[in-house]
Write a structure and sequence with these properties.
The chain is α/β, with parallel strands linked by helices. About 40% of the residues lie in helices and about 15% in strands. The chain folds into 3 domains: about 5-270, P-loop containing nucleotide triphosphate hydrolases (Rossmann fold, 3-Layer(aba) Sandwich), CATH 3.40.50; about 280-445, P-loop containing nucleotide triphosphate hydrolases (Rossmann fold); about 460-485, no CATH class. Helix 5 (about 90-100) runs parallel beside helix 6 (about 115-125) and helix 9 (about 195-200) crosses helix 11 (about 230-235). It is globular. About 50% of the residues are buried. The structure holds adenosine monophosphate. The site of adenosine monophosphate (AMP) has 13 residues, from helix 6.
Length: about 475
């Protein structure tokens, strides 16, 4: 966390003003009167919000047959159609009417569900036609990682053009001066990670005084990464009374406090995870002696489908990629020690199908959407059942099925079985060795990857100059807030 953000976990006057205006709980119509802070015990707050989200998820989705019916501006509907998108996904059908009307939104939906457009389309529609000024966005999307920032900005930029909404991206690990000049050219919306945005606020390269729509995406992940003080500071810098949308998979770890503090009478929307682990994934445990683990991993990695390996540490990621390569399997790596450019290159290469294997730390487990990953391998055990589900959720996306394999040494078996129980997952356990039938079966499984042309890197992913992975173009180290808690 940058020094300036560390001191900001306070309640400024205008926040107390928001609290005074906030209505009490209202239970009908998918509406949550945000709970009052103070005497209410925290577990009750969580339970109540969770219950509202569960109710919202169980409520029938509005029957909206096409984007044209939603009241979106015609150029936006046409731009969507040009991309083959005609009918809103469930989360979009749920959020669009309220979000277009300017309501605050509390949403529970995962990456892959279409939530980017769930919040992005109303933003584009509402910001369209407004006055653009230098360094003064009117829309702000806060996301936990650089990859997600780029992904969200890419998705919205193609649609922003036709309605005259200019989007700038702000994240650490990329040259700050380029971001400053982008902001100076005039901007309607900024997609940002918290640390770099605070740097830019401190340099007065950007002011949030005119922000009228703010989105907090993957709020629980931001909490995990220690971003909440930075998020609080940023939210406090946006004017009171604007529209706010918060999306989170869970409401613990302080997310409920963000909801209470910053959302006013939100409408609550939820969709079931795009891929339910129990229903659409096949969970397996391969118990293997430690001396055979790499050989089994290499055999599995040589399969024709796309495979994502998860390891615990950055060094572990590099080591496994080298070990696989020694066995003839090419693998890309993605972890927190790599600069933005290298991380994006790895992700682009994996998406394009060359190589078919990506070795990642948990930094890649959330928020990143890569199609057609039909096998996730937990090479190292995850920290807890949530990480297990997040990692595993990179497969079986958008209604497809997938396989999840945990490679477990005998002494880790008991911990893994507890973790499966907590994740409510039933897994087949097999004691294997290299060449074992169960290993062969996985090694020959998967849809053969069709290699797609690599996308040309855009402006925001050009090399960061001589700065190196953790440095800005001026050689200044990134703030801790930008890096988050790297794994
Ligand atoms: P997201 O969860 O926002 O990352 O979206 C996941 C994927 O679904 C992206 O590749 C989107 O382009 C795609 N997508 C989102 N909404 C629609 C839609 N209404 N119709 C077709 N594809 C969509």
């Amino acid at each position: 966390m940058s020094d300036s953000s560390r001191t900001t976990d306070r309640t400024p006057n205008r926040t107390s003003e928001r609290r005074r205006r906030r209505p009490q709980h209202s239970r009908g119509n998918g509406t949550a009167g945000a709970p009052r802070r103070g005497p209410a015990p925290e577990p009750t707050v969580k339970t109540e919000l969770d219950r509202l989200l569960d109710d919202a998820q169980n409520a029938p989705a509005p029957d909206i047959a096409s984007f044209a019916e939603t009241g979106l501006p015609t150029p936006l509907v046409e731009a969507l159609a040009a991309q083959g998108m005609k009918k809103p996904f469930a989360i979009q059908a749920r959020t669009l009417p309220d979000a277009l009307a300017g309501r605050d939104i509390l949403g529970r939906a995962q990456t892959g569900s279409g939530k980017t457009l769930g919040f992005g389309l109303p933003m584009l529609a509402r910001l369209s036609g407004g006055k653009r000024a230098s360094g003064t966005p009117r829309g702000l999307v806060l996301v936990p990682t650089r990859e997600l920032a780029k992904q969200v900005a890419d998705a919205l930029t193609v649609l922003g053009g036709p309605v005259g909404v200019r989007i700038a991206t702000v994240f650490g690990g990329a040259p700050i001066n380029r971001q400053i000049s982008d902001l100076q050219r005039g901007v309607d919306m900024v997609v940002a990670t918290p640390g770099r945005l605070i740097d830019l606020m401190n340099r007065r390269a950007v002011t949030l005084e005119q922000v009228r729509i703010t989105v907090l995406d993957e709020a629980d992940y931001m909490a995990d990464l220690g971003f909440l003080p930075a998020v609080t500071r940023i939210m406090d810098a946006t004017p009171d009374g604007g529209q706010r949308m918060l999306f989170s998979a869970t409401l613990d770890r302080g997310v409920d406090r963000l909801v209470a503090r910053y959302l006013t009478d939100p409408s609550v929307h939820a969709v079931a995870p795009a891929a339910s682990p129990v229903e659409s994934m096949d969970h397996k445990v391969f118990t293997v002696q430690s001396e055979h683990k790499v050989a089994v991993a290499a055999e599995v990695a040589a399969r024709p489908g796309r495979t994502l390996f998860f390891v615990r540490t950055k060094h572990g990621a590099d080591r496994l990629a080298k070990q696989l390569e020694r066995q003839g399997v090419e693998a890309a790596t993605i972890h927190g020690n790599l600069g933005q450019n290298a991380r994006q290159r790895a992700l682009d290469a994996f998406t394009s199908g060359r190589p078919r294997v990506l070795v990642a730390t948990d930094v890649a487990a959330r928020g990143i959407h890569v199609d057609d990953v039909d096998l996730v391998v937990h090479f190292d055990p995850p920290n807890d059942h949530k990480d297990y589900l997040n990692r595993s959720g990179r497969t079986a996306r958008a209604g497809t099925s997938g396989t999840v394999v945990a490679l477990v040494q005998p002494e880790q078996a008991r911990g893994m079985s507890r973790l499966h129980r907590e994740a409510r997952v039933v897994a087949d356990v097999t004691v294997v060795h290299p060449g074992h039938d169960a290993v062969r079966e996985i090694a020959t499984s998967g849809t053969p990857v069709v290699i797609r042309p690599l996308q040309r890197p855009d402006r925001s992913t050009r090399p960061a100059g001589r700065g190196g992975p953790n440095r800005s173009s001026k050689g200044r180290r990134q703030t801790a807030a930008d890096r988050g808690r790297r794994r």
